[in-house]
């Protein structure tokens, strides 16, 4: 799973609290990575929309 996330530019953080005498590891996505990726995706979406608007303007 970590390898796939790193290919997407994401990483995880983990913690190991002691619960009921057992060690359990909890993973979560690094919030900074998620925020950055969201900005990249938003930028790419705006670029696609702008290209589509330009294409439609040229057709008219």
What is the end-to-end distance? 48 Å
Number of strands: 4
Q: How many structural units, i.e. domains?
A: 1
Rg, rounded, reads 20 Å
Helix/strand/pairing category: alpha+beta
Assembly state of the chains shown? single chain
What profile does the largest beta sheet have?
2 strands, antiparallel
The run of helices and strands is: HEEEEH
Number of helices: 2
Could you tell me the mean pLDDT?
A: 89
Strand order of the largest sheet: 1-4
Give start-end ranges of low-pLDDT stretches: none
Overall body shape: rod-shaped
Strand content: 15-25%
Report helical residue fraction: 55-70%
Structural summary, described in words:
The protein is of the alpha+beta class and 60 residues long. The protein has one domain (2-59). Helix content is 58%, strand content 20%. The chain contains 2 helices and 4 strands; from the N terminus they run H-E-E-E-E-H. The chain has helices at 2-7, 31-59; strands at residues 12-15, 18-19, 22-23, 26-29. The strands form 2 sheets. It has a two-stranded antiparallel ribbon. The chain has a two-stranded antiparallel sheet with strand order 2-3. The longest helix has 29 residues, at 31-59. The radius of gyration is 20 Å and the shape is rod-shaped. The model has no long low-confidence stretch (mean pLDDT 89).
């Amino acid at each position: 799973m970590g390898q796939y996330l790193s290919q997407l530019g994401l990483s995880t953080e983990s913690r190991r609290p002691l619960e009921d005498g057992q060690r359990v590891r909890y993973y979560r996505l690094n919030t900074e990575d998620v925020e950055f990726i969201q900005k990249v995706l938003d930028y790419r979406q705006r670029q696609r929309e702008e290209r589509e608007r330009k294409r439609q303007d040229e057709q008219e």
